[in-house]
């Protein structure tokens, strides 16, 4: 049988080293022994943007990007989206197995009883500017929960951690809904414990003067499916932030706020908002070829296309397309869908996109559904953050329990000046200060 080792010859010294290979990976620290002299620091790897570095072991989410496979704890995403509720999947992701009937009932009850926000959180939110971006309000408010629950700092107590996890999952839709209503100038709506997770979210978003909000069951189920699809995605940019900030042992509110900040970026969760802006800019099906030509000439990207991991198709995009059809039966067809379908059709036949393996990702169709349901594009990333909180917290828990982990602290290759002579004020030449 072939040996699971790697033999390296350092041509600077002619020394040979044999390193173990475990699960197709060598340990970067094993390279440190490769030195040109005893004073030499030892060999490092250079991997900006983590293109080829596993930062952890994880048993939460499996992705095979070449075959378009996504599984949570071993269950295919397609099965979970069809058979489960979001809170059932949240339980699976956090605790490793699907709950039985009693466990699920208890879990749902506990999350439901953590949906209320402390009145000072509500007051805090009232002071955001009327036109503040909902994602910025969400990030700031999640961080501010740390002021309400100072005991969350004790991250070494598993029961305390679990309490904060329940609070975060319960309160995320309430904060999201308040940020939405704040931007419209509407009064905040309190949670209704008779409703399920998605229905209650819809209640807090859209209830006006009716005594009891009744959610459309097709839309509530669609929202639940979208939440399931967005719940975790292994070591993406925001999960990496969650683990990195969490590794410094910051409390879970501040850590989740940091992860949500990463999610807000247009290259990550913020892409769904950008897709809608792009479809607006394209305007009609006829303009699609010209827009694609522009993209190929290097003027911007097709938002909602491409993925670091999926190089075949994003399985979530397929489920979202199916969900869109169900939603449109209730809301009527979003005319943007025709532009999106045309964009996808042309792009998938185009050499530029084929060669680079650029396919629609989760964000390409989700915004079209959200808009049909009545959400403004600024809310789209907030809708992503609600379910992704579950994934962040599962990644956080796993990181804390992993004895291989320490505070995340990468190395650098220093490219700056050697030591320089200090110049007093009068001898300094003007600096051409630029933002870069
Ligand atoms: N439109 C046009 N060209 C693209 C696109 C796109 N959406 N995405 C990548 N490319 C091109 C790049 O210009 C590059 O071309 P080159 O080889 O000629 O230089 C090539 O494809 C490879 O792209 P990279 O940027 O190296 O790929 P990377 O893995 O670093 O980026 C990312 C992945 C960030 C998702 C990228 O595809 C992108 O910016 N897409 C648009 C934003 C988006 O939809 N993000 C959401 C991702 S899903 C999520 O985070 C939930």
Describe the SSE topology.
Blueprint: E1 5-10, E2 15-20, E3 61-64, E4 69-72, E5 75-76, H1 77-83, H2 86-95, H3 101-112, H4 119-126, H5 134-148, H6 158-184, H7 197-206, H8 217-229, H9 237-247, H10 252-263, H11 271-282, H12 288-296, H13 315-331, H14 336-349, H15 351-355, H16 362-373, H17 380-401
Antiparallel strand pairs: 1-2, 3-4, 4-5
Bound molecules: acetyl coenzyme *A.
The site of acetyl coenzyme *A (ACO) has 19 residues, from helix 16.
Short description:
Helix content is 50%, strand content 5%.
Textual characterization of the structure:
50% of the residues lie in helices and 5% in strands. The strands form 2 sheets. It has a 3-stranded antiparallel β-sheet. The chain has a two-stranded antiparallel ribbon with strand order 1-2. The longest helix has 27 residues, at 158-184. The chain has helices at residues 77-83, 86-95, 101-112, 119-126, 134-148, 158-184, 197-206, 217-229, 237-247, 252-263, 271-282, 288-296, 315-331, 336-349, 351-355, 362-373, 380-401; strands at residues 5-10, 15-20, 61-64, 69-72, 75-76. The protein is globular, with a radius of gyration of 24 Å. 39% of the residues are buried. The chain is built from 17 helices and 5 strands. By secondary structure, it is mainly α.
